[in-house]
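so my prof wants the structure for this chain in the tokens format not the other one, which i didnt know existed until like an hour ago. anyway here's the sequence
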Amino acid sequence: MIRLLIVDDKQENLYMLQVLLSANGFQVDLASNGAEALERARRAPPDLIISDILMPVMDGFALCRAWKEDARLKHIPFVYYTATYTDPKDEDFALSLGAERFIVKPVEPDKFLALLLETIETHKVGQPAAPSQPAEEGVYYKEYNAALIRKLEDKMLQLAEANRILERDIAEIKRAEEERQKLQDQMIQTQKLESVGRLAGGIAHDFNNMLVVILGHIELAMKRLDSTHPIHADLEEIQKAAQRSADLTQQLLGFARRQTVAPKVLDLNETVDGMLKMLRRLIGEEIDLAWLPGGALWPVHIDPAQINQVLANLCLNARDAIAGVGKVTIETHNAIFDEAYCAEHAEVRPGEYVLLAVSDNGCGMDQATQAHLFEPFFTTKAIGQGTGLGLATVYGIVRQNNGFINLHSEPGRGTTFKMYLPRFTGGAVEPAAESTAEMPQGRGETVLLVEDEALNLSVSRAMLEDLGYRVLTAGTPGEALRQAKAHAGEIQLLITDVVMPEMNGRDLARLLGAIYPGLKCLFFSGHTANVIAHRGVLDEGVHFLQKPFSMRDLAIKARKALERE
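here's what i got, hopefully its the right format
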């Protein structure tokens, strides 16, 4: 069996070579430096030595010189295996000392074994590669020092590179720490807003439930009184106040992001035109609002409330940018973007769009400000005067609707926001005639009404019965299931609250629909959750009635649900 001596100061390298060579039939002895290797070899000479170069006590160059000067060892093949000295001059120096082979790490195991076997076979047939006489001492030290200098230069370069990387890492750590602090500040602000939002949404939900009772009973009372009755006028005033309260709860739900988003096919010109009065009040009398509608405008598919939100945010932003007297311009027109334009603007897809632009002649912005303008919580306003969410919300709405937004601004020359929404190419949607049509009446259909609030259940039942429906009531989903079983085949419409104990309204509707196929359903709630909506957008085919509602709203929604195919 061929005996090998392996010399390396790293235990993991010794272990790996020992495993590889032992598995291939070699007997392996180990040493951790040149001095230890010489001592072992002189006691029991190996058939071949494999040595690293950079080692303590005695390195590989000194070991090879001593090896080739020893009469008992000089004919034993010497193989270098190094990852440190890799310069061609290092190899030349190593071979000049008498080494038979110079192998640079890493090398594939099969190739490494082949090189060892080739060295052993060459030595057996009497063709040693080493010179018969060792190099003179002066030549040796000259070459040895040159090799050390090369290695020192390499190490200095590596150290310089390591220092550069360290400086870069330190800078990145500092930037990461600054970013972490920034994110932490944003998280705290977000948590505050989320807490306020949850509180506002909860208040609005509970308040909406109370308003259902107030508005419902007012409407029922007004129907039973002649319009000339003295109390009728008082009831009208109460109804107006309650309706204003309902509008307030809608604003709270909007802040809490619990409103239902129902995209519709819109003519932006009509939508904007309907908002002008409100926008003029918003920006004040000192600022002129110019409206430039484009001709033959294409339709878009978006929730009208989102257009209101976008324009309100941008007009408020314009107002704050104008010191005193100024002008805000809103305009629309059609736009087409081709492949060439989109190649230079990654966020844009080729196609037909409708432009909605808002411009002002205010103070404008520099490039540094524009770079962060749509980031959440970024604001140029003083602390307490802005959340930094207005423009982020605008950006989110535009992107949510598959559009994009461009900004043009210069200090002292005003700002223009250009929002492009995709043209809607589907079939035209006729505007709903809910507000002008006569209140549709029931035709004796049986309705199962499910509501966990007793007062709401009572007034809703009274309204439905007044509309001509036969009403079965349930205060819990479990009671609703019992009612459905007791009146199997009689129920045509399920009207259910969304959030209830035991089971939510969607699950109740699915369970009853599986038992009674063809059962129609209408949901109502003080706010929508993901139970019937995805990210606030109503699921396809879902009929929903927002609390508080009028008898007309209830009549129209119930008839619409019943007549759905």
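also thought this was worth mentioning. Confidence is low (pLDDT under 50) at residues 127-132, 429-436.
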